[in-house]
Write a structure and sequence with these properties.
This protein is α+β, with helices and mostly antiparallel strands. It is 41% helix and 16% strand.
Length: 376
């Protein structure tokens, strides 16, 4: 979900290219002949699944791609998208299942294209990535072992990015980026979207607790670059074997690096826990398995662990409030925008009603069970 820092501008910035226009972009910018193209769900950018025809110049290599057209706000920060593209390539070289970034005919990673709507000229950054195989984990029942592997993947990703260097890396210090987990208090100006409701009361309480118990500890957290959006639609899996008790899956793809920013180790695991809870039949038990996987790579400190509950609640609030706000701007995209809301409010209320101590007991006891070799 590559989303701009300024939510107020969303109504004006989402691209609206037709399939014919998108096909023409692929051919003119990347020199590939399109045989089939169809739109993919997106938040405020535009994505297309592209199949290309073989020619005498493209006899090998992939035949499926994703065309990504950034909204006009994101397109004003090409250095950010450049860094994201280099990170994708860096992680792929390090063995992670990320896409390959295709170069333009001019040997660049992106191209800025302009369209004239009659009233104004808008510019959009365009990229082409290879299409990754697999199904979103939102579509399968997630086993404890897969949750552990996803937690481990999140830890390995953050650890690997410690070695990434780029002259423009500082652009990931996105201080007012609404999706950075430290910016939960910025949600206050979007609470109108919830009306007067129990949901709004919970979010208001989470924000106040967050200010007092999380923001005051940021100096004690260990900083790193976060993917920031390891949700159940951005992680792809493939079955590696079938058995009477069900298939075993492995991660085959990591998508969408648009929310990358400087954060903290504990942010990554909190975000991952929250999104893995969305489709789970036992949401409160998810956290312990993800945490155990993450801590097999990066053990959290006591102060980081103590913030985990409110960080997970905070991410629920970000996803739910921003989705409600965005629905006011893009009612035509409501089905996609409200994916988290289908179960998210219920999970947040359950966590909040149980309280931090009870939820932590479940998480930490489950995580401890991996130390003894008896995963719960």
């Amino acid at each position: 979900m590559s989303r701009g820092d300024d939510l107020q501008s969303q109504a004006l910035t989402k691209p609206a290219f037709s399939e014919t226009q998108a096909s023409a972009l692929v051919e003119s910018v990347f020199g590939l002949k399109v045989s089939k193209i169809q739109p993919l769900p997106s938040y405020d950018d535009q994505n297309f699944h592209v199949c290309i025809s073989r020619t005498k110049d493209t006899t090998d290599g992939p035949t499926e791609y994703v065309l990504k057209i950034s909204n006009t706000e994101s397109s004003k920060t090409p250095e950010l998208i450049e860094v994201q593209s280099h990170i994708i390539m860096f992680l792929r070289a390090a063995g992670f299942p990320t896409a390959s970034v295709c170069r333009t005919k001019g040997d660049n990673l992106t191209s800025l294209v302009s369209t004239d709507s009659g009233s104004e000229i808008a510019s959009y950054l365009v990229r082409l990535l290879t299409y990754l195989p697999g199904r979103p984990i939102a579509e399968i029942p997630i086993s404890p072992q897969l949750l552990y592997e996803i937690g481990r993947l999140a830890g390995k990703l953050d650890k690997t990015l410690e070695k990434f260097h780029h002259p423009k890396l500082s652009c990931l210090r996105r201080e007012n980026f609404i999706w950075n987990l430290k910016n939960v208090p910025l949600l206050e100006k979007y609470l109108y979207a919830l009306g007067q409701s129990r949901n709004r009361e919970i979010v208001t309480q989470v924000i106040q607790l967050f200010k007092g118990e999380v923001l005051t500890k940021l100096g004690d957290f260990r900083e790193c670059v976060n993917h920031g959006d390891l949700n159940d639609h951005n992680i792809l899996v493939e079955a590696i074997k079938s058995a009477p008790e069900g298939a075993t899956y492995h991660v085959s793809g990591i998508l969408d690096f648009g929310d990358m920013s400087y954060g903290y180790y504990v942010f990554e695991v909190a975000i991952t826990i929250m999104y893995m809870m969305i489709e789970s039949e036992s949401p409160l038990h998810v956290g312990g398995h993800v945490l155990a996987g993450f801590e097999s790579v990066i053990p959290l400190t006591p102060v980081e662990r103590s913030a985990l509950f409110l960080l997970v609640c905070g991410r629920f609030c970000q996803s739910l409030v921003i989705a409600a706000h965005s629905c006011h701007l893009h009612p035509e995209n409501k089905e996609y925008l409200m994916i988290t809301a289908k179960t998210g409010w219920k999970h947040l209320q359950q966590m909040f009603d149980m309280g931090q101590e009870a939820v932590e007991e479940i998480w930490f006891q489950t995580a401890r069970s991996y130390d003894s070799g008896i995963a719960m």
